[in-house]
Amino acid sequence: MNIFRLLGDLSHLIAIIILLQKIWHTRSCAGISGRSQVLFALVYTTRYLDLVTTYVSMYNTCMKFVFLATSYATIYLIYLKFKATYDHNHDTFRIEFLILPAFGLSMLINHEFSFMEVLWTFSIYLESVAILPQLFMVSKTGEAESITSHYLFALGSYRGLYILNWIYRYATESHYDLIAIVAGVVQTILYCDFFYLYITKVLKGKKLQLPA
Predict the structure, then answer these.
(1) Which of 7, 23, 102, 175 is 20 to 30 A from 168 (CA-CA)?
(2) What's the distance, CA 126 to chain centroid?
(3) pTM assigned to the model
């Protein structure tokens, strides 16, 4: 644990809180990609199966439970409780084109060809592209609400802070995980255009618009 890992986890948690608060208080999931949320739920489910086999720390266990519970709560709100407000006409990204390649790659490139390790690797690969349906939806609709923009910025910041965490760990512990680093860099690159627009538009009180 270090300050970058802690800030990364905090940023991730803030992103989830922003999302749930937005949906609950507006009683609407308009502008939110249910498909991205399904992918995130799949990421956390396959990554945190070790909850029943391995204990690392109370912090680690609590964070895993929080991410699992909130991901399924978000899916419930989008597809059941506030289903009438879900914009399925714009949330059309074919997520099988992300799931199948991620699974295939995890079978070929992993640290150890075992059930738990392949699923962990799959979750790393899938997380790197799980935000694509949300970005695709924003691009398709032409703009994003400020609160949705804040959610995306916090989520992107989480990954950026984790890159700093990896750099710090390599400098202080000579530890690195190439699979996680490459996937994390890919994920951060996907946010770059959004980060630029967020800083130049949203922080100045303007609406965020992604190029179609």
Answers:
(1) 102
(2) 9
(3) 0.91
